[in-house]
Amino acid sequence: MPDFWFFLEVLVGGLLSGTMYALVALGFVLIYKASSVFNFAQGAMVFFAVLSFVGFMELGLPFWAALPVTVGLMILVGMGTERFVLRPLVNQSEDTLLMATIGLAFVIEGVAQLAWGVDVRRLDLGIRDEPINWVMDTTGMLVSQLDVTAAVVAGLMVAALALLFSHTKVGRGLRAVADDHAAALSIGIPLKHIWMLVWATAGVVALVAGMLWGARSGVQFALVWVALKALPVLIIGGFTSVPGVILAGLIVGAVEKLGEVFIGPFFGGGIEGWAPYMLAVLFLLIRPEGLFGEKIIRRV
Amino acid sequence: MNISAILQSSQRAFPVGAPILELDSISLRFGGVKALTDISFNVLEHEVRAIIGPNGAGKSSMLNVINGVYVPQEGSISLRGERLAGMKPTDAAKLGIARTFQNIALFKGMSVLDNIMAGRNLRMHATFLEVALQLPRARREEAESREAVEEIIEFLEIEHIRKTPVSRLPYGLQKRVELGRALAAEPKILLLDEPMAGMNIEEKQDMCRFILDVNDHYGTTIVLIEHDMGVVMDISDRVVVLDYGKKIGDGTPEEVRSDQNVIDAYLGVPH
Lengths: 300, 271
Known about the structure:
By secondary structure, chain A is an all-alpha fold.
C-alpha cells in the first residue's frame, strides 16, 4: 500500500474517532453555555445512560422500546440535577458549582452500579467494528463501519442541536440566558426552564455518546474516563462554542492517531494518550479562549 | 398646567386616561440602608411619566420595584386597581411591563434581529417539542414574530444593522436596540432606566423622538428615569422628583421646575 493511502487511512480513522470526542464535549458545552457550570458529571452521565440502556434491554425490552425509555430516564436525570443540585446553589461561584458536579459524578456512578451491577456488558448495535469492504477493495484503506456510523450519528446530532439552538425561540432563550440573566428575566424567559432543558438535552447527548462508545469498547466503568478525552477538545475548541468543539474534536482525533503512527516511534510509542493534552497546553499558552471561544477580556 | 389641562389639551392618538399603575407608601430597605421611604404616586394610562432626582436618590430602586426585581418591605403596587404582591420580573413581563436597563443589558453575542426576536418570547406559546419538531404553530409564531419585529426595526430606523452582532454597535444604537427588544413584547407599560445616559446631543434628540413616537404610535404608557432634567421636562407629562429616597415633588414639568424643594435638591442650599 502506498504511503499516501496509509496516511489517509490513519487520518480518516482519527477524524472519525474525533467526532465521538466532539459528541462528548458537546454535552459539556451545552451546559457551560447556558449556566457557566463545568459539569464534571458528564462522563458519569455517559456511563449511567448507556448502562441503563443495556440494562433495559437485558430486562427484555427490545431496542426500539429501550431507547425511548432511556431517553426519558436521562431527561428525568437532567431535570432532577437542575432541580435538586443546581437550583439550590444559584448565584454561588463557579467553583462551588464545579464541586457540586464532582459530588454528583460520584452519586451517579454509584447509583448506576447499584442499580445495574458492575459487570462489563456488550452492546450490539448491529454494526460491526470491521472495515468497509468496498473501501478496502478500491483503496486498500481500513475504515471501520462502526466508526463511520458513529461519525454520521454524531454529525446528525450536532446538526440537529445546532439548528435547534440557532434561530428558534428555544435557541434564542438559551443564548439569552447565557448572556444576561437580568435581561432574560425582564423579557419573561424563565431561567429554570432553560436550565432544565439544557440538562435534559445534555442527558440525551450523553446517551448517544455512551451508546457509540459502548458499542466499540464495551459498556463498562471506564466510559467515565471518556470525559477526560473531552477536556482537551473543550480547551482547544472553546468552552462556549458548538462549532469549536466539533472542529477541535476532529483535530484531537487526527493529532492523536497521526502522532501515534508517525511521531510515536521516536518516543517509543504510546503518545496517543498524552498528545491531545500537549496540544491543549499549547493552546492554553497561545490562545487560551480556544478556537472559537469568547475572547477573554479582563478590565483591571 | 395641571393634569386636567393635559387631559383636555391632548391632541394625541391615545389621550391620557385613568391610573394604570398605583404605588402606595412604598418603602424599601437594604439592611439598614433606606433606599426608598414612603413613596406614593400613580401613572396614568398612555402617559409619559418621569422619575428624576440627583444621584443616589433611589430612582433605579423605584424602577426595580415596579419591575419586580426588588420586593419592597412596605407599601403596595397595583396595576389597574389590582394589587400585585410578591411579583417577580417574569411576572411583571407577563403583566405587560417591559423595561430597559441603565447599563445596557443586551444579549451581546446575538444579532440585532435575534435580540429583538428574543423580546417576543412571551408572545410565542409553542412548547419545546413543537419548536424542536417545527410543528405548524411554532412555524407560524416564528413568522408572525418576525413580521412584528421587522415593523419595530423599521420604526426605530435600524434596518441597516439588522444582522449585526450588537456588541459591535455604538452605544447610542445599542440603546435603541434595547428599546426595540422591550417593544417587541408589545408592553402596556414601558420602563426606561436612563434611556439618554451617556449620549451625545444628537443621540439624545433621536431617543426623545423615539420615546414620544412609541407613546403616540403604540399608546404605550412610559415611565422613565432620567438624570438630565432638561430633556425630561420636554417630553414628560408629569414628573416625580426623588431625593435621598423620599418624594420631594410631583406634578407637571412647570410645577416641578418652580418648586422650591426641587430647586434646593438640585442646586443645593446654603448650610
